[in-house]
């Protein structure tokens, strides 16, 4: 019986396809803005994404307040304060984030500072949320983790903030921007999207809206992942995966985060190794434990991950198991390009610390024992 | 922080694409005016439009535009390309010059472009549908079949538009479109 007692929010307007970047000035006008500040990751700027964005503004009659491209691999409050100062000095009225999730987080943190007219995020770390809509914010994801940052959570200084107002107003995916810089980068972005979609699917209290987004994301990934991994720099092949990343992050924003994601984020904080590496390594163990506990896996997952033919040919009682196998195949094909976490030799005390922090997180839904069990299961497959 | 490290950027223009869009809109506008006197279907559609009906088709934010008006005698006239101080009953605005270039190089038909959100329509919606129908017919006359079939939703078959009538009307429309009346329109708008 479908659950029809739910809440779902999907704020961003998603623009994808030919001439998507050229739609940005029109979207700014619809949000009563005319002078955006662009906050770009250093990697995106070096790849020329900034120049492509400026070219898309030609003949628009809009001035760009500046391109702030000091973001490397960390979203710090200092960067957000500098961006906010530049925003005020230039008289800007909108933000455009160009790049990966760090650029998106800095842009949103700066947006909080200017919209709420404050210089510190301390009240927000303690649970305060914005009282009203922030300044217009447009997300232009590039390769790496960009598409997975279209949700309602930001993490400046590795401290998580949640609010519906943190959703981007518009997400623009254009094939000129989403081509990956390397096979590893492509695999990491695919793994993040897969993880978001999978655990949005598996979270309890499944509702038709969340199911629709997660299903669409998984289907896009299943149909396009192999082509993308073969030629990661091809924007045409990267576009469906970027789309899937955006859809999956919206679905995940309406679900509890999965145990793998929470654990991977805590491990990333402890070790500075990207979360996608841990997700690729921990997911098989987590799914195996789920099956061992006889937790039901919806049969629709097989339809999304393997297609109609495979779904129709599988008896209903076997669909859950086959779905898990299909999803694991997708993870394995992406994980080939991601280094094995064992090579980093993570110390045991860091693993324990990460498990404790993960279990203590708000809405975690699992205990320390469960988290340790997932790590143990992953260890059995590779000697940590 | 050194603010000069992050200068303001004033993006340039796209003069060639704008010039191409201008020529296309001028040709289509004059073609619509000519077709309204030549083709029976277009005559019927124009007769149903209210007197004084004015519509514009152009590219945001700063043009080029095509403005047409049905005058007191019932004829559809190409007024010009200046939108200044003209009150229109219907505005069809293509959102940016890149989208206009895609439409005018026939990589997308008008119907496809509307589907993709490339242009917005403000004003009289039934009038908009009539104008789209007129534009489809005019494009069939102005363009060879191989290009017109990309531009229109459905190319008319031989039963609807016999080849002899099509070519004869095409000649009449081209002659009227590039007649001395064009010089008068150019002079009035310059």
Report on this model:
The complex is a heterodimer of chains A (384) and B (190). Chain A is an alpha/beta fold and 384 residues long. Chain A has two domains: 13-173, Rossmann fold, CATH 3.40.50; 183-381, Dehydroquinate synthase-like - alpha domain (Dehydroquinate synthase-like, alpha domain). In chain A, 53% of the residues lie in helices and 9% in strands. Chain A has 16 helices and eight strands. In chain A, strand 6 and strand 7 form a beta hairpin. The termini of chain A are far apart. With 190 residues, chain B is an alpha+beta fold. Chain B has one domain (15-181): SCP2 sterol-binding domain (Nonspecific Lipid-transfer Protein, Chain A, 2-Layer Sandwich). A five-stranded mixed β-sheet of chain B has the order 3-2-1-4-5. Chain B is globular. The relative contact order of chain B is 0.15. Classes of the chains: A alpha/beta (384), B alpha+beta (190).
**Could you state the order of secondary-structure elements of chain A as H and E?**
EHEHHEHEHHEEEEHHHHHHHHHH
Which class of chain B in CATH terms? Alpha Beta
Tally of individual domains of chain B: 1
Estimate the strand proportion of chain A: 5-15%
Indicate the low-confidence ranges of chain A by residue numbers.
Answer: none
* Average pLDDT, all residues of chain A: 89
Task: Tell me the CATH superfamily of chain B.
Answer: SCP2 sterol-binding domain
CATH topology of chain B: Nonspecific Lipid-transfer Protein, Chain A
CATH class of the largest domain in chain A: Mainly Alpha
Biggest β-sheet strands, sense, barrel of chain B: 5 strands, mixed
Which outline of chain A best applies?
globular
Q: Roughly how many Å is the radius of gyration of chain B?
A: 18 Å
CATH architecture of chain B: 2-Layer Sandwich
Structural class of chain B: alpha+beta
CATH architecture annotation of the largest domain in chain A: Up-down Bundle
Most extensive interface, chain pair and sizes: A-B, 28 and 25 residues
- How many runs of DSSP E, i.e. beta strands of chain A? 8
Q: Can you tell me the number of structural domains of chain A?
A: 2
